[in-house]
Amino acid sequence: MDRDGFWELVEAARAEVDDTVADPDGVADALTKALGELAPAEIAGFGVELERLQAESYRWDLWGAAYLINEGVSDDGFDYFRGWLLAQGQEVWEAALADPDSLADVVDEDLGDGFEGFNGEGMLSVAQHAFEAAGGSSVDYWEAVEEAGFDAPDVPAGENFDFDDDAEMESRYPLLSAIQDS
Among 3, 57, 120, 129, which lies 20 to 30 A Cα-Cα from 97? Predict the structure, then answer.
């Protein structure tokens, strides 16, 4: 599956959810259902593309934005944040990778007031769940993904910086910082 096919499936799943910002699990459920209608090889191809996108987004600048948005984020939390970001669709994804501070336009209404964070853990396993529902095993799924010759990075790309340095964060993310301060 190519990237265009990946995003077409994500966008179709997003169309079934009223508020993807607050309900990435709804996108994951719709996506798992749509993937279940594909052949196992196509499902694994979707999984390969998902892994590629996760690797491309494994960056310090995006992690800093996630840290600011969620008021802290662990390694796993950053993975789940990127799952949430996938559920927002191609346009938001590409904008966030070009400029993580652009996420201020997406999250501004949902920050605070008891919102539990931007967590799309379910998005990370949609292909595996669909593959298993189609009769395959998780071992077979991961073997198919690994056959694509894909290696995930061990270290985030870009410049590491101190997420707890308020001045640094405000300098890098003026729009997100303004939301946090309000």
Answer: 129
Reading the chain (182 residues) residue by residue, the pLDDT tens digits are: 999 999 999 999 999 999 888 889 999 999 999 999 999 999 999 999 999 999 999 999 999 999 998 888 899 999 999 999 999 999 999 999 999 999 999 987 665 444 466 899 999 999 999 999 999 899 999 998 888 877 778 899 999 999 999 999 999 999 999 887 76
Among 58, 63, 78, smallest CA distance to 153 is for 58
Q: Into how many domains does the chain fold?
A: 1
Residue whose token pair is 């959810």: 17
What is the domain range of residue 130?
3-181
Give the C-alpha separation, 83 to 78, whole Å: 9
d(CA 38, CA 134): 9
Model pTM score: 0.93
